[in-house]
Write a structure and sequence with these properties.
42% of the residues lie in helices and 15% in strands. The strands form six sheets. The chain has a nine-stranded mixed beta sheet, sandwiched between helices. It has 884 residues and is α/β, with parallel strands linked by helices. The model has no long low-confidence stretch (mean pLDDT 90).
Length: 884
């Protein structure tokens, strides 16, 4: 058997020369990082949950987790790993260790075998031993599979003795109380406990593997326990440096008015009163009309839950990048007021977050050691798989949904959301596929101690019931009124309470024809309403439609009327400028133009605090039309121009054929059935009252009633509903195929394979990527202009595709990029090679170059051409139209 002073001969990390860090030292490092991670103040909720799952003291859980995580690299005590460095292998060979020609090279496999054997001897349960060993061995991102032949190969011998010695040393250092696990019999701990172990092990291994925090050590004859003392001090320092221990939950109650600048309304007071009284893990579903302060209610409730339950932070999830960007600014301001003086990490999570100015400033504040800034964005969290670990985050819902999908390191993503407050905004905007993924995520959040706050202005009864069931509610929630809040804890019956509705606003509804040749009359109508001044919005369902509407409104408006176009097919930099310009012009504190029209796609219908005097919209599902109408007269204190003192929503009715609307491209954006039901619900209405009419209008569109007196309409509805149900079943099946296991089926953990790629810039085929939305695949192109031999970006930068770009050039290249989904152009650019120099830059390795000449680009065999317009963005124009 290997003597203790020989432990230093087994290496785990090696440098260029013969320098190395012993396996026992690295395992002790990681165990100490886990111990420090679990003992930080914001891990109180995590410790309590883990302890409650085993019915033991919190200190017992710390010992168990520290040992089990430390043992993650015991598989490196094997011939297959030690032979990877022949210069370091010779010392072991001289001591009599041998390697077979077929030695297992995957040390994760050996870890699972060695730890399973060791734990079985202490626990007496094969099932428990396997479950725990499987979590520890998964630290490289996926669960390992072991065949019987490999298991027999590692059943005995000198390597087994060396492994057991290492594990016995760890046992002496971390003192795990095995009685806590033996009390479970043959049952492994709950799914939330196991997945927390896997997630904490992986993220602490990343910290423990850094030579910045744990430099290589020569163990020699030193007792590993003595090394562990210094290692713990290094671990505590590492936790502080990466940004995991810079703050503690506030000890005083939130004072609403100083935090938000106004006194709470009845809805906000009711929500705060409930979370203050409640001591349990909770999901709140807050349904209230647009502009009633759901965001402030959510932030105040999240703050209270974090403070009272010792939770690890907040993740605020929104449907789009644009809404995430605006919420990030609001969230940062809230943290600055609430956590003044604490060093707090907050991150923006979406694919273009590093191009956001506020976020870039926070990242620079973290890098600048002399900065006095306390709100920061530490570099350690910017790696893709670590983003959710940050204490506070704002981003797209996609980042959260990935935590429920079969992606590598899914348990790290789950650990990032565990024991936090997760706010899910605008949940009505999710289709069947995303809703299925969301429900699956809610089941995991319930298992992982996370509290959830769901926000929506327009939620059908059936969807509310699905959300409550997904989080573990035992009964269907009551429908009490509107606004209303539904509160539920896992395994309990939901509670519903209703707050007094604000005074209803009467919105006038007017129909306008929407045939292509009728855009001019619609534009003229809108221009006429603005004759005396005012601000209007025209919201379209497609980018092409928005570009056509903008051209029509531009012709109809007088020269002194400002006009903006905002959609997702502008190059990134220009889109950010337009987004900022729109917010400045139409937000509450903005410099409002005397007379202006904004033409936009759905990017402005969710969460953006914009206000307009009059609006035109395409036909859309009723809940989304209400969302759009929520931007009408949103700021009640604002004075309105003459003739616009009453909110008016013009909706463009599709042309009729045989008594039914011809929905055209709109039914490729939204379900035909829902559009038909919406059309039926509003076609005879001349007014709607918000919020009093909201519940009845939503149920009229999404409820079960499907009868109609007209047989043509009844038949069309039945056909459309059948198609919708088939499509939903298909989409739900697609979502089920990419989901991680269910938390109540832990037995599936032994067969699950984490194969999906969650890297947004990865060059793998789109079918292998984790898709959080069933949208068409897109390709990112960099818009460049060809002038003879010179290729230039819009900002004038000369582009050399054969040279590796500087950091500044990478940013400018990305700001000149745009995503294209149109099928023929997606296929064209996907078959175009990424410049070789760009393949070495992570941010550019999925970007192609689109070369424009005189503002246009054509490709052989394609029926459309691309035009890059400074006013319209990227236009996809049919060649037949060009020839005409």
């Amino acid at each position: 058997m290997t003597a203790p002073f020989e432990l230093g001969a087994f290496w785990a990390k090696a440098g260029d020369c013969a320098s190395a860090h012993p396996v026992i030292c690295h395992m002790v490092d990681v165990g100490n990082v886990v111990r420090s991670f679990l003992q930080r103040p914001t891990a109180a909720g995590l410790r309590r949950r883990l302890a409650n799952d085993l019915r033991v003291a919190e200190a017992t859980v710390v010992g168990l987790f520290s040992f089990l995580a430390a043992a993650h690299d015991i598989g490196k005590v094997s011939a297959g790993f030690q032979r990877k460095r022949e210069d370091l292998w010779r010392g072991l060979a001289d001591r009599g260790y041998r390697a077979s020609p077929h030695a297992q090279s995957d040390h994760g496999v050996v870890t699972q075998l060695a730890l399973k054997r060791f734990l079985k001897a202490r626990l007496g349960s094969v099932e428990q031993a396997l479950a725990l060993a499987r979590m520890s061995a998964a630290h490289h991102g996926s669960f390992v599979r072991v065949d019987r032949a490999t298991e027999r190969e590692f059943a005995s011998g000198a390597w087994v003795e060396a492994q057991d010695l290492h594990l016995s040393v760890l046992e002496r250092i971390f003192e795990p109380d095995w009685a806590a696990l033996r009390s479970l019999g043959d049952d492994p701990p709950p799914a939330g406990w196991l997945l927390s172990l896997a997630g904490v092990t992986s993220l602490c291994d990343w910290i423990g593997s850094s030579t910045d925090h744990f430099p290589f050590h020569i163990l020699g004859a030193q007792d590993p326990a003595a090394y562990a003392t210094g290692s713990l001090r290094q671990a505590e320092r590492a936790m502080e440096v990466v940004g995991l221990t810079g703050w503690t939950p506030p000890t005083t109650e939130l004072e609403f008015a100083p935090a938000f600048g106004f006194e709470p309304n009845e809805l906000q007071r009711a929500v705060l009163s409930w979370v203050t009284r409640n001591e349990r893990q909770t999901m709140l579903v807050i349904e209230a009309p647009m502009g009633l302060g759901k965001t402030e209610a959510a932030l105040a409730a999240a703050d209270t839950l974090v403070r009272r339950q010792g939770l690890a932070g907040v993740y605020y999830a929104l449907p789009t990048q644009a809404t995430s960007n605006q919420m990030f600014d609001r969230f940062v301001r809230f943290l600055e007021r609430r956590l003044a003086g604490a060093k707090v990490d907050v991150h923006l999570l979406h694919g273009l977050s590093d191009l956001n100015d506020t976020y870039r400033e926070l990242r620079l504040a973290a890098i600048d050691e002399d900065s006095e800034a306390t709100i920061r964005a530490s570099t350690w969290f910017t790696a893709a798989k670590r983003r959710l670990i940050a204490p506070f985050g704002v981003g797209t819902v996609d980042q959260a949904l990935l935590a429920g999908m079969a992606v590598r390191h899914v348990f790290v993503r789950l650990a990032g959301l565990a024991d936090k407050v997760v706010v899910l905004d605008e949940v009505h905007a999710y289709d069947a596929y995303m809703s299925e993924l969301l429900d699956h995520l809610l089941a995991w959040l319930a298992a992982l101690g996370a509290s959830v706050i769901v926000l929506s202005a327009t939620l059908p009864t059936s969807r509310r019931q699905e959300l409550v069931a997904a989080y573990g509610g035992t009964e269907k929630p009551a429908t009490g009124g509107y606004p209303q809040v539904t509160a539920v804890s896992p395994g309990r019956s939901p509670e519903t309470f209703v707050t007094a509705a604000p005074a209803s606003r009467d919105i006038e509804l007017r129909r306008l024809p929407s045939a292509p040749d009728a855009l001019a009359p619609a534009a003229a109508t809108l221009a006429g309403r603005l004759a005396g001044g005012g601000c209007a919005a025209w919201i379209c369902n497609t980018v092409d439609g928005a570009q056509r509407a903008f051209a029509a409104i531009r012709r109809a408006l007088p020269s002194d009327c400002a006009h903006f176009l905002f959609h997702a097919r502008f190059p990134t930099g220009q889109r950010h400028e337009l987004e900022a310009h729109v917010l400045r012009a139409f937000c509450r504190e903005g410099a409002r133009p005397r007379r202006a029209v904004l033409v936009a796609t759905q990017v402005v219908e969710q969460s953006l605090d914009l206000d307009f005097d009059v609006m035109v919209t395409d036909l859309a599902p009723a809940d989304l039309m209400l969302q759009r109408a929520g931007r009408l007269h949103r700021h009640a204190s604002r004075s309105r121009p003459a003739g616009l003192d009453h909110p008016t929503l013009y909706w463009l009715e599709p042309p009729l054929a045989d008594g039914l609307p011809e929905l055209g491209v709109h039914e490729y954006v939204y379900d035909r059935y829902v559009l038909l039901r919406t059309w039926l619900a509003i076609r005879e209405r001349t007014h709607t009252s918000v919020p009093s009419d909201v519940p009845s209008l939503i149920e009229e569109v999404y409820g079960d009633r499907n009868a109609h007196d007209d047989p043509r309409i009844r038949g069309a509805l039945e056909k459309a509903r059948d198609e919708l149900e088939r499509r939903r079943e298909t989409d739900q099946a697609k979502a089920g195929a990419v989901q991680f296991i269910n938390p109540d089926r832990i037995e599936d953990l032994y067969a699950v394979q984490l194969t999906l790629d969650d890297d947004e810039t990865s060059p793998v085929h789109h079918t292998l990527k984790a898709r959080t939305r069933l949208t068409r695949p897109s390709v990112t192109v960099v818009c460049a202009h060809r002038d003879g031999e010179t290729l230039r970006l819009q900002d004038g930068l000369i582009l050399d595709p054969n040279a590796i770009p500087t950091r500044d050039a990478v940013r400018r290249i990305r700001l000149s990029s745009v995503a294209i989904q149109r099928w023929e152009w997606w296929r064209h650019f996907s078959s175009t090679a990424v410049p070789i120099a760009w393949q070495r830059v992570a941010a550019l390795r999925d970007c192609r170059i689109a070369e424009f000449q005189d503002g246009a680009l054509e490709a052989p065999g394609l029926r459309t051409r691309l035009e890059l317009s400074p006013e319209l963005g990227l236009v996809i124009r049919p060649l037949e139209e060009e020839r005409a």
